[in-house]
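CATEGORY: protein folding

GOAL: derive structure tokens
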Amino acid sequence: MSLNKTTEIDQIEVVGTGHVQIREATVITENGQQISRTFHRYVLSPGQDVSDQPQKVQDICNVAWTPEVIQEYQSKMAEAQDMLNNEL
């Protein structure tokens, strides 16, 4: 009996806000037959450091995150922070 566990990024999406959504699949096989598949998802924000991400994720972020997209995201975050500060 041979069990193997692999993790692979099986889905990368760029949404309208510029966020990049990543889905990792963890696959467990026994003697070459898949017996389990689970998923883990996470999101990267425009301008976030992606140097620790796999190269294909870095490449997509570099294309999707133009200076305009990053600026728009940072402006929206600053506006949201201002609103929170005004409510306190």
About this structure: Residues 57 and 63 are 10 Å apart (CA to CA). The longest strand covers residues 3-14. The chain is about 35% helix and 40% strand. Residues 3-87 form one domain.
